Amino acid sequence: MQNPYLPYPVRIDEIITETVDKNLKTFRFVFLNPEDEQKFAYKAGQFAELSVTGKGEIPIGIASSPTEKGFVKFTVNKVGLVSSCLHTMKAGDIMGIRGPLGNWYPWEALKGKNVVIIGGGFAFTTLRSSIVYMLDPANRKDFKDIHVIYGARSPGMLLYRSELAAWEQRDDINMHITVDASDDPDWKYNVGFVPTITEQKAPPGDADTYAIVCGPPIMIKFTQPVLDKLNYAHDHIIMSLEMRMKCGIGICGRCNIGKEFVCKDGPVFTLSQLNQMPREY
Ligand SMILES: Cc1cc2nc3c(=O)[nH]c(=O)nc-3n(C[C@H](O)[C@H](O)[C@H](O)COP(=O)(O)OP(=O)(O)OC[C@H]3O[C@@H](n4cnc5c(N)ncnc54)[C@H](O)[C@@H]3O)c2cc1C
Ligand code: FES
Fold first, then answer.
1. Of the bound ligands, which one is closest to the alpha carbon of residue 49?
2. CA-to-CA distance for 156 and 8, rounded, in angstroms?
3. Domains of the chain, with CATH numbers?
4. Among 29, 60, 101, which is best to mutate for testing ligand 1, by the most ligand atoms less than 8 A from CB?
């Protein structure tokens, strides 16, 4: 049995600076041992521990889709010790990835349904994974209408801008990109907070429609009543939590909310499940 604390060695293949403030970078990793890529089989919504030698590990959502082969991608915000060190690393550097960890968005339940993706800020990472997964030619027929409502503070703070532009051109996905404010005269999308745009653009809730919501707490706080107003059942609202974590495998007890370990039982929960849990997130 594989030691669950042992990271797979990876090489940084490419680094993309995503935002104008340069605090968000996407790291594309290639496994040093090709057989490790098979062992790292993941589903959209899962995360991994990125391991920087001598600094530590950080839990980060997997931004690539399982349908993208030969590499795995993560988008990391520079906030503290490990993420800042990662931001100084260069293509060609070697580090580790431990995972995949946690559960994933409920892809079986979402089959044949309308999927509304609602994201804000850098939490869009696993949502990018989900969109690429659903749009894959082998999977698109499994889902009905796909809506994406994605907001950032300003145009320069949006992630994956060239992909957003490409998705805008497609007729099998409804994109609703928004920014809190824009001083760009060429900005052609929405201006307004995510909850406001959700109220304007999201389809009403019904038995065939699920929302996946991922973003900063303030966005979640104001989006939830909008989804209530639009009649989304709480077991059709899916959320991903970002708790402090250490082991990532349900052993250290660092991430629990009541009896649930966010690293193992989550990070994905329905709002019905969260309603049963103490408000510690
Ligand atoms: C399941 C999961 C998925 C995540 N996905 C992403 C992702 O895709 N991209 C990304 O950039 N970040 C993501 N995060 C958050 C990321 O793990 C933290 O930002 C990171 O651990 C910070 O580590 P550090 O050593 O750089 O900072 P530290 O030196 O440990 O801390 C710096 C600052 O960040 C705060 N902080 C540290 N950890 C967290 C946390 N988990 N939540 C909130 N505040 C924290 C500290 O209080 C401190 O103020 C995710 C977290 C979880 C649990
Ligand atoms: S991080 Fe150790 S139990 Fe969840």
1. 1
2. 33
3. 8-100 (2.40.30.10), 107-240 (3.40.50.80)
4. 60
